[in-house]
Specification:
340 residues; 14-stranded antiparallel β-sheet; 6 helices; 17% helix
Length: 340
């Protein structure tokens, strides 16, 4: 997880010393065009059936009190459905230089396709090697390149995982709104890419998003069943592959609560997750709030990640301007008002 930790730190540390930020955004966003276009990416050949947008905020606690900024970036999650129960997830997340302090430009993308016991994964993270607060504020990068992206492409098939990793370079420092140009640059795997193959347990989740979705679905079903089912799920670990390593994902707790979302009183579940890398034992914790019933069933409404005692990143779901494209049939009738 080191690359993702560095990315998260870079997103938030610069928030402390910033002045006022203009909050204007161009429309329509190139992001919408990007997600609408079917491509070679995992799941890109299948139609989407749900899209959610999120607003990013960052907090830093240099001494006793949290300080930070709201609306410094965004995230988008797409759900796609293929034939015979196949599904795919896409996540684009990062700062928006038009909104972020010092025009900070850090973002990442991950797409996962799950088709039976097989799967494909594509991950992209804007590369940054800042090690200290001073490095982040100064905009330093150890390799001195402005347009550098860490790329991982992996497949899980018939009990084997095959991962390919490399660094892609672009002429400009592209933003998340220009992700399409990065995709064009990485469509072909370079000859000097690193390859890793390993035998993995059959039935293992082929990626991080698939594992999280699986555990959230189990949590929702447990809360609809009984308190014993809720407690029993804390003993379950979901195995997944990411690159050349295997990880276990588990729930430390998942309590239900009532809260106002889009002026509606709904029941949500506050899940505290933990991942553990099997070889090193390294652990990472994060929190996700997700709906229990209706059209918010299993849908993240908030995401929190605190890699250090002084650092916190939060994502909050944006209200929808129209009802979701589809509601999972197992959620039953809506009993808590219409979702937006």
């Amino acid at each position: 997880m080191p690359t993702r930790r560095v990315l998260t730190i870079a997103l938030v540390v610069a928030l402390a010393g910033a002045g006022a930020i203009a909050a204007s955004r161009k429309a329509p966003s190139p992001i919408d065009v990007l997600f609408d276009a079917p491509t070679w990416r995992p799941g890109g050949q299948w139609p989407e059936f749900r899209t959610e947008h999120y607003r990013m905020a960052g907090r830093i606690r240099p001494l006793l009190f949290w300080i930070g900024r709201d609306n410094v970036g965004l995230a988008r999650i797409d759900w796609r459905r293929g034939p015979s129960g196949a599904v795919a997830y896409e996540l684009l997340i990062g700062t928006d230089p038009a909104l972020a302090p010092q025009r900070l430009n850090r973002w990442g993308y991950i797409a996962e396709e799950i088709d039976g016991r097989n799967g494909r994964l594509l991950g992209i993270i804007s590369k940054s090697e800042e090690r200290t607060v001073g490095d982040v504020r100064a905009g330093r990068d150890d390799d001195g390149r402005r347009g550098a992206f860490s790329v991982i492409r992996a497949t899980v098939r018939d009990g084997r995982s095959d991962a390919t990793m490399w660094t892609a370079h672009t002429l400009d420092s592209l933003t998340l709104h220009e992700a399409g140009q990065v995709f064009a640059a990485i469509e072909q795997t370079p000859a000097d890419a690193e390859h890793h193959e390993q035998v993995v347990p059959v039935g293992m989740q082929p990626g991080f998003l698939a594992a999280v979705a699986n555990l959230i679905d189990r949590s929702v079903r447990a809360h609809r069943t009984s308190p014993d089912a809720v407690e029993a799920l804390r003993k379950v670990a979901i195995l997944y592959a990411y690159g050349d390593s295997l990880h276990d994902l588990s729930l430390r707790s998942h309590a239900s609560q009532r809260e106002l979302i889009d002026e509606q009183l709904v029941t949500t579940i506050h899940g505290k997750f933990e991942t553990r890398e099997r070889t090193t034992g390294d652990k990472t914790r994060f929190e996700v709030g997700y709906g229990r019933d209706g059209c918010l069933s299993g849908i993240p409404v908030s995401i929190k990640y605190q890699p250090r005692w002084w650092l916190r990143v939060e994502l909050v779901r944006e209200p929808q301007t129209a009802p979701p494209l589809a509601v999972a049939p197992e959620t039953g009738p809506l009993t808590e008002g219409a979702c937006r």
